[in-house]
Amino acid sequence: MLAKTFLQRNVLVSRCLSSVTSSTLKVGDVLREARVYSSEDVKSYAEVSHDWNPLHFDQELARKAGFENRLVHGMLVSSMFPRIISSHFPGAVYVSQTLHFRSPVYVGDEILGLVQATALRETKNKYIVKFSTKCIKNHSELVVLDGEATAVLPSLELLQPSSSER
Amino acid sequence: MLAKTFLQRNVLVSRCLSSVTSSTLKVGDVLREARVYSSEDVKSYAEVSHDWNPLHFDQELARKAGFENRLVHGMLVSSMFPRIISSHFPGAVYVSQTLHFRSPVYVGDEILGLVQATALRETKNKYIVKFSTKCIKNHSELVVLDGEATAVLPSLELLQPSSSER
Q: Any CB–CB contact under 8 A between B86 and chain A?
């Protein structure tokens, strides 16, 4: 089962995405990071965002609403995208983001965030980069969240040219 | 000065926005909430999102990058929109959000979040509602963040038909 999961994930990644092959960002490069969202994460996020929607805390209510379990806040999952970008490009400034919440993320799910550079333009010694942004659930091909982001990067040099996910 | 600020804010609100006049949401209704983002909020958000972009923590670096002060994470400011919607409609499920980060939000800024219902459709005893979403800074007319959201509401009854902001 573990082997199957490993295979699925790597097939997915190799089929859909080119790797980052140098320390300078190019169109087509993909940055990625995985994370499991815990009950504590959901509570901490509610404390700072003030979003106490009961779907995130009341399992019974979440089930009555048609979900399998308590939901992770969609905007907490979305925070993966600026996190991934700024961890590679400190000083990155976010310009825009579109978000389509396509499938629920439950407490305990492992989410793989994928950020792919799709367009790149230099202006005044900075770089305006468009990214496609996607989150995939539990080593499957299920896209739970996708959209596009634009950020201004101070440089195209990757601070962390490799990670445990790459 | 306080009177001027109060006047500015209320002129803005009365000129641009119709009020919520009943306990049932209608197209045109506006929900709003204000908040000041502190250093502690920025730190707490970084801890849960893992987004440690130095623009949020290093004042000198933020100034060198052309900003007046340390920035509040854009996605933390964006969290006002689902917070406002779910505080009035517990059990609301977020479907989509677009975000345009138009102007920086600094630590200490007071941000007024405005969420206006623009379209409404009933389906299977639930309600799909589109909202225009906007954040305005420091009692001015400066829009720092705008976009659109879609959410599925379990009911159109407002849990809190009035607030300190309305």
A: yes
